Amino acid sequence: MSHPTVNFATYLKDYPDERGYFGPFGGAYLPPQLEPAFKEIAHAYHTICHSSKFISELRRIRREFQGRPTPVYHCERLSNKLGSCQIYLKREDLNHTGAHKLNHCMGEGLLASFMGKKKLIAETGAGQHGVALATAAAYFGLECDIYMGAVDIKKQAPNVSRMKLLGARVIPATHGLQTLKEAVDAAFEAYLREYESAIYCIGSVVGPHPFPLMVRDFQMVVGVEAREQFQEMTGFLPDAVVASVGGGSNAIGIFSAFLNDPVQLYGVEPLGLGAEMGQHAASVTYGQPGVMHGFKSIMLKDEAGEPAPVYSVASGLDYPSVGPEHAFLHELGRVNYVKADDRQALQAFYNLARLEGIIPALESSHAVAYAMEIARQRKQGSILVNLSGRGDKDMDYVIEKYGYGEDLLL
Questions:
Q1: Which candidate, 51, 218, 309, 332, has a CA 20 to 30 Å from the CA of 186?
Q2: CB-neighbour burial class of residue 236 (10 A; exposed 0-12, middle 13-18, buried 19+)
């Protein structure tokens, strides 16, 4: 389990290696016809990621279009209800389009423009990645096809409307469980047909190399900002940093800045309705090594060794694997992968709304829920949560199914 050679001072330069591996995890497991396409993306990215022109343009977009930097906010009322440990939020819900996803979508759109591609193709679960990519496509004048599970299309109607309003085609995935895994399957199949004129913009730190690297690099802005802001606000580093983990992009985004600091890192997986197969999507907790969607990581498997059915109240977390870097950080013991179930996430959702005037995404609510658990247990200290998205997209679904949560209020 231990990797004594890992130096966290140089970790971000050392990993992934040139083949896209984080220790034993990662790589690119592709059909032969897609290998040249992914090599083309990797070459283009490595060409421009150190280009001052590309970096300055991305910084201008973040400042003028996205509204970055997003603030860090102290949840005083929530903290005081729980005890004396203080909870802070990195407000990615205030990023344009309402979540952290635009951080990498604008980068991927800029890369597609550089490569001369005409179309962006992607999958989406909760719809936030789809909205962000449709936004990027509109900004750069590109076509956009978004594949989404038919079940998620019903659950996330406001985001589906946003994508269409922005000019994207929303294409339902109607096989299997009709959720995020099936959307990824459908998007991959489409990319196989259109890779010469399109680029596949993966929505998390998953997929074949170079996507786990690229998405991490684009999301690192969250951690870099938050670390500086927190120290400016308090004079200290936080004792713990907490983020929800489905594929893992918002978590890698904030963790990356703290890897070499004496800070505890917690990745919160969705326990859903319980530990039985099909009732949760806690890949690191209950999974085992395997290859899926072109990369090796930890994944949930059924008796036949195929990707297991998964569930979470949060559509953006119901994925049966996790980014390869998370699998590696778990193996290293640098990040603690923990769980929050549907009820805990809903309690966080309602209480953050009532006590702080912030309606969080159900995905982000899992991180808030675990931060609340830590705050109950500790007598002092501070916790920084990546509030990865806002809950407008979830309100209709939550109210229809669970009401206004009076029984869950602190």
A1: 218
A2: exposed
Q: Are residues 85 and 182 in the same domain?
A: no
| In contact, 260 and 270? CB cutoff 8 Å | no
77 shares a domain with 122: no
Q: Please indicate, yes or no, whether residues 230 and 299 belong to a single structural domain of this protein.
A: yes
Quick check: is 4 in a domain? no
Judge whether 35 and 20 are in contact, CB under 8 Å: no
In a domain, 107, yes or no: yes
User: Which of 290, 293, 274 minimizes the C-alpha distance to 282?
Assistant: 274
Q: What's the pLDDT band for 401 if we cut at 50, 70, 90?
A: very high
Parallel/antiparallel/unpaired status of strands 295-299 and 288-292: antiparallel
Q: Which amino acid type is present at position 5?
A: T
Closest CA to 263 of 328, 336, 346: 336
Cα 331 to Cα 12, 298, 341: the distances in Å are 17, 10, 23
Q: Which amino acids are annotated catalytic?
A: 75, 100
Encode pLDDT of 386-397 as tens digits: 999 999 989 999
**CA–CA dist 161, 157 (Å, integer):** 6
Tokens of 3: 């990797």
For the stretch 120-131, pLDDT in tens is 999 998 788 999
Q: How far apart are CA 239 and CA 263, in angstroms?
A: 5
Residue 73 has pLDDT above 80, yes or no: yes
Contact present, 187 and 147 (Cβ < 8 Å): yes
The total domain count for the chain is 2
Q: Which residue has the tokens 């996430």?
A: 345
**Strand spans (E) along 107-220:** 119-124, 143-149, 169-173, 198-200
Burial class, 387, CB count within 10 angstroms (exposed 0-12 / middle 13-18 / buried 19+): buried
User: Rounded to an integer, what distance in angstroms lies between the CA atom of residue 139 and that of residue 108?
Assistant: 12
- CATH number where 130 lies: 3.40.50.1100
- Rounded Cα distance between 252 and 70, Å, is 17
Same domain as 264, residue 289: yes
Per DSSP, helices labelled H in 196-248 are 211-234
| pTM (global) more than 0.85 | yes
Strands, DSSP E only, in 28-168? 72-75, 86-91, 119-124, 143-149
In the structure, what pLDDT confidence band is assigned to residue 1 with cuts at 50, 70 and 90? very low
Overall residue count recorded for the chain in this entry: 410
Q: Comparing C-alpha atoms, which of 122, 103, 106 is closest to residue 114?
A: 106
